[in-house]
Amino acid sequence: MGPAWPDVRLLESTRDRTARDVRDRAILKLLAIYGLRSGEVRGLCLEDIDWTREVIKVTRSKQRKTQYYPW
User: Fold this and answer.
1) Most exposed residue of 13, 46, 48, 71, measured as fewest CB within 10 angstroms of its CB?
2) Which residues face 66 on adjacent strands?
3) What is the helix (H) or strand (E) element at residue 28, kind and residue range?
């Protein structure tokens, strides 16, 4: 189980609607919710998002396999 939302204090710094804050908030949520590693987040591409099935495809670096996560 991940941290409680009040404990994820960095999310508070991304409340604005600027492109940078939207991007940063998405990155922080991927780290906090799915437990992705920074390299896994860095490796994501638009092609990894299946808009029809509403899943994100992640190649897990440590396990060396592909996993799908709902968004």
Assistant:
1) 46
2) 59
3) helix 19-34
More confident of the two residues 1 and 70: 70
Contact indicator for 59, 65 with CB cutoff of 8 Å: yes
Residue 71 to residues 34, 36, 49, 68, Cα–Cα distance (Å) = 10, 14, 9, 10
What are φ and ψ of residue 59, in 5° steps?
A: -90, 110
Q: Regarding beta strands 55-60 and 49-50, do their DSSP bridges make them parallel or antiparallel, or are they unpaired?
A: antiparallel
Provide the 3-class DSSP secondary structure of residue 69.
strand
Give the model confidence (pLDDT) of 39-65 as tens digits: 999 999 999 999 999 999 999 888 889
Instruction: Say whether pTM exceeds 0.90.
Output: no
